[in-house]
Specification:
Elements lengths: L3 H7 L3 E4 L10 H8 L3 E6 L5 E2 L7 E6 L3 H6 L7
Antiparallel strand pairs: 1-4, 2-3, 2-4
């Protein structure tokens, strides 16, 4: 939360460790509310692809919309 102004200004790619320990302290919905609607959050799978199965995540990636990150990573997104 302390970096929210920087996140909104620079729109970086954000990697979030989201495992059984961190899930005890925060939920993805809280992260979405904090970083804003311009980000989409995906699970980073072991095969380096991204999907929406956040419940089974170990790491997640928050991708800012309309940035080079979205352009580069969109082929990696596999939504079933």
């Amino acid at each position: 939360k302390g970096a929210i102004q920087t996140i909104r200004r620079l729109q970086p790619l954000i990697v979030i460790e989201y495992n059984h320990i961190s899930k005890q302290y925060f939920k993805v919905e809280e992260i979405k509310q904090t970083i804003g609607d311009q980000y989409k959050i995906f699970r980073l799978r072991a095969d380096s692809l991204l999907d929406n199965d956040i419940d089974n995540a170990w790491n997640c990636i928050a991708i800012p919309s309309r940035t080079i990150f979205e352009e580069i990573l969109s082929p990696k997104i596999c939504v079933e």
